[in-house]
Amino acid sequence: MKDIFTAPFVEEMKKTTANMYRLGWDERNGGNISFLLDEAEVGEYLDLNAVKRTIPLGFDATPLIGKIFIVTGTGKYFKNVDADPETNLGIVRIAPDGQTAELLWGYQDGGKFTSEFPAHLMSHMARLSVDPGNRVVMHCHPTYTLAMNYVHELDEKKFTHTLWEMCTECIVVFPDGVGVLPWMLCGTNSIGEATAEKMKEFRLVVWGMHGIYGAGKTMDETFGLIETVEKAAQIYMLTSHLPRVNTITDAQMWLLADRFEITPREGYLQER
Predict the structure, then answer these.
(1) Which of 65, 70, 78 is nearest to 106 (CA)?
(2) Per-residue pLDDT of the chain (272 residues; tens, 9 = 90+)
């Protein structure tokens, strides 16, 4: 059996959480990541028959029975993951009843997965229904994206269009746009269900006055989606109080769409 501490998926979680903390996206224990793993790969590092304990999920995750995830822990600080992954991370498998998770590794201090894990699983189910390659769900509190929530209308079309205007790459990176939810109580099935519904159409969902959810095939893709939104939001916050002299026009965005062979969300740009 290989050393679990050298597993690529553990290393990737360590590097990503450290980077997100460094960027100020995940203060204290804010933010969480779940990563759908390949069973055969996990089996090279862990005995898949050795279940340490079971943890209630609090909702029905039947469509994900048998799926294995590495997940950040509840109350855990991203800054501590690199030094102590076995306490701050856990590898869990959705049990045959669909109602519980089987702990295969981690949470060695008796902890459990993030309180947002049900919301993550709902988003995984939603994304997998439209993109079988989806593997990652990431939640964080990027500073400028959050600041933008307070001074910009929380309207999906307007919010997305503003972000597209801020940086040439934006429409190329997230042509499907950004979903937006109003403020909702976090850590509940209600916000998880609302996010999952948005995730059927968007890979990015803003939680009003809270943060953002991103989903993707890889850690890099998911991180890059959020990173691009945050850069655009930063440019917006640095310029929104100043007279607008220049902008990226809809006509120019259509040129970008043609050049990079992407399809902007219908109705978000003026017809050419």
Answers:
(1) 70
(2) 899 999 999 999 999 999 999 999 999 999 999 999 999 999 999 999 999 999 999 999 999 999 999 999 999 999 999 999 999 999 999 999 999 999 999 999 999 999 999 999 999 999 999 999 999 999 999 999 999 999 999 999 999 999 999 999 999 999 999 999 999 998 889 999 999 999 999 999 999 999 999 999 999 999 999 999 999 999 999 999 999 999 999 999 999 999 999 999 999 999 88
Alpha carbon distances (Å) from 237 to 46, 146, 204, 248 = 46, 10, 20, 16
**Sign of torsion, CA 169 125 86 49?**
negative
Q: Are 69 and 49 in contact (CB under 8 A)?
A: no
Provide the token pair at 158: 């307007």
Helix axes 219-239, 8-22, angle to 10 degrees: 10
Catalytic residue numbers read 116
Report the C-alpha gap between 127 and 133 in whole angstroms. 9
For strands 204-207 and 179-181, give the pairing: parallel
Residue appearing with tokens 């048998």: 66
